[in-house]
Write a structure and sequence with these properties.
With about 300 residues, this protein is of the alpha/beta class. The chain has a domain of about 220 residues: NAD(P)-binding Rossmann-like Domain (Rossmann fold), CATH 3.40.50.720. It is about 40% helix and about 15% strand. The strands form 4 sheets. It has a 7-stranded parallel sheet with strand order 3-2-1-4-5-6-11, sandwiched between helices. Strands 7-10 form a two-stranded parallel sheet. Strand 5, helix 5 and strand 6 form a beta-alpha-beta unit. The longest helix has 22 residues. It is globular, with a radius of gyration of 18 Å. The chain starts with a strand and ends with a helix.
Length: about 300
């Protein structure tokens, strides 16, 4: 299968591409971060914000499947660049969805759990959304654009962590890097989420494609926890000192964008569609740890250095 992965230098895009490069022909789409020409998968460079770029990219790549990860995912960056966030997060997904439908290409669109305000928790796919920052508002608009343009597309609301090129793209990495250096770090006791390790998420997304699912799904862990508890789990998994993590409220974090405090998502819809229970936190944390021991994080670090040489 030929798979076009947008945002192929990002956390999900890169890990997915590396994960499935042996079984499938991966075409990674990047914007500013050029991957090495002798890398493990093919890549193309394109600025999806430019008019017509999405449709032209799809015509050139001729994929059987599109995994659309590209977005401005940093909440505070979206506050500073609202117009670009609107273009990439809200408008481009609809253009890709329309082009995919016309070409009869399966599309998996990556959205976010942040479309909820987090005041209640226990959200299902039918729960009312109420985004509270620019990132969340533009991602919700992207969901609607995809659903309107391509009813056969999969829209996956996700939250994930894993090893990245920079070593600082996910909360799991941030906890590890600080604790490993014996630096203190805050952990929010009043922000709840249901993250998946990025490769576990990749496997679930492929199962969704194999089942030929369509529509909106909460694609997260069946076990939710606070970010403080998540940091403590990281510490225990790696044998680090969890006492270095200070339990604090997110209101003490001096963040530019508001946060949704309770993003517990229900996963019954996807579990019924797949015929299996989605994983709790233990398998992902173990995989995160084993990848580090096997040198995966260091491999990505060297790849990043090669890209920036």
């Amino acid at each position: 299968m030929r798979i076009l992965v947008t945002g192929a230098s990002g956390l999900l895009g890169l890990n997915f591409s590396l994960q499935f490069a042996r079984q499938h022909a991966i075409i990674g789409l990047v914007n500013q971060h050029n991957l090495p020409a002798d890398g493990p998968f093919e890549f193309h460079q394109s600025d999806l914000a430019q008019a017509g770029a999405a449709e032209q990219t799809i015509k050139t790549a001729k994929p059987d499947l599109i995994l659309h990860c590209a977005a401005i995912a940093n909440l505070d960056a979206c506050e500073g660049m609202p117009e670009l966030a609107q273009r990439l997060n809200a408008e481009v997904p609809g253009e890709i969805a329309l082009a995919a439908r016309r070409a009869r290409i399966k599309l998996v669109h990556i959205s976010t759990d942040a479309v909820f305000d987090g005041l209640q928790g226990s959200y299902s796919e039918r729960s009312a959304t109420n985004p509270i920052n620019i990132y969340a508002r533009t991602k919700l608009a992207g969901e609607k654009a995809v659903a309107d343009a391509n009813p056969d597309a999969i829209i996956a609301r996700v939250n994930f962590y894993g090893w990245s090129l920079s070593g600082a793209r996910s909360l799991g990495e941030l906890f590890f890097q600080n604790l490993n250096a014996e630096r203190r770090m805050n952990g929010f006791t009043d922000v709840w989420f249901c993250p998946l390790q990025v490769n576990v998420l990749g496997e679930i997304l492929m199962k969704m494609v194999e089942k030929n699912l369509s529509g909106l799904y909460h694609t997260v862990s069946s076990e939710c926890l606070s970010k403080y508890d998540f940091g403590c789990r990281i510490a225990r998994q790696f044998g680090l000192d969890e006492k270095l993590i200070s339990p604090v409220s997110w209101l003490e974090g001096r963040l530019a964008a508001s946060r949704s405090p309770n993003l517990r998502l229900r996963t019954e819809k996807l579990e019924k569609a797949l015929g299996e229970v989605l994983p709790d936190q233990a398998p992902g944390l173990k995989r995160f740890y084993e990848q580090y021991r096997e040198g995966y994080a260091e491999t990505l670090k060297k790849l990043n250095q090669k890209m920036n040489a």
